[in-house]
Amino acid sequence: MNASRRNMLSMTAAGLIQIAAKPAVTLGDEPLSTDWLVRQAAERGHTDLGWLKSFHSFSFGGYYDQRHMGFRSLRVINDDKIAAGRGFPTHPHHDMEIISYVLSGSLQHKDSTGKGAIITPDDIQMMSAGTGITHSEYNPSSTEANHFLQIWIQPAMRGVQPRYSDNKVTDDQKTNQWNLIAGPDGSHAAVGIYQDAKIFASKLQANESLDYTLERNRHAWLQVATGEVTVNGTTLQSGDAVASSRATSLHVTANQSSDVLLFDLS
To answer: What is the dihedral of CA 134, 102, 52, 256, to 10 degrees?
Structure first.
């Protein structure tokens, strides 16, 4: 097995074992309570394989930090940049909801269910690994790099039949509004997942604002994918995140054009 293949496997199977082993509900040094907690981009884990540059909000592959094992059912947010013509060869997953959110460029997916697609920033893609699935992900462009977020959510039930889906969610549908890109089946989300979790996406233009009310017994993780925003007085830049586990109102203002993801978790 060559070094590249070994490295790739360490970020899939090994990463899944590490993350799923302890369903922690902490962020930083202490449990979430009434305070905002910030996960700064510069403090994330990092993998650099040349063709892949990845930043890990939570422990993944060769990056392990017991303080950052996940948040509720949210287990992985990998901020990945893939060089032109490169990608992940076929590899396995099981019992995980895996969501791909493209920020720039394109991403080609093929899996053992027989499904496949090339997705762009106008798409959202979801794969329920369930009892077991293999897939590959490549940047199909010969000239343009790909930038995407790989998101893993632990499902509410194990051993489901593997499935794949993708859907169109255009920039216009996300501009200055929350768009439900992923959520439980029946929630009218663009793609369904096997968990009581909702993912909202927005492309906020400079100086525009959005509000979101987090209900009691719900938990929020807000990820700035690109740009810079201020959330309830806290300024967050690209790669930063903020989390809360109290009923509250979130007020998000873009200081520049920004891509923002909001996770509403049980």
So the answer is: -160
| C-alpha pair distances (Å), 79 with each of 1, 39, 49, 155, 232 | 26, 14, 14, 21, 24
Residues in the chain: 266
At residue 9, the pLDDT reads: 35
What is the C-alpha separation between 199 and 221, in angstroms, rounded? 10
Spell out the residues 6+ positions from residue 149 whose beta carbon is closer than 8 angstroms to its own.
77, 78, 79, 80, 100, 101, 103, 223, 225, 261
Residue 114 falls in which region: left (phi positive, over 0), alpha (psi -120 to 50) or beta: left
Q: Exposure pattern of 112-148 as b/e (b: 16+ CB <10 Å)?
A: ebebebebebebbbbbbbbeebbbebbbebeeebbbb
Q: Specify the pLDDT at position 247.
A: 87
By CB atoms closer than 10 A (0-12, 13-18, 19+), residue 257 is: middle
The conformation of residue 43, written as its DSSP 8-state character, comes to: G
What is the distance, to the nearest Å, from the Cα of residue 153 to the centroid of all Cα atoms in its chain? 8
DSSP annotation of 190 reads S
For residue range 119-149, list pLDDT tens digits in order.
Answer: 999 999 999 999 999 999 999 999 999 999 9
Cβ pair 104, 130 in contact under 8 A: no
- For 34-69, write each residue's pLDDT tens digit: 468 899 999 999 999 999 999 999 999 999 999 999
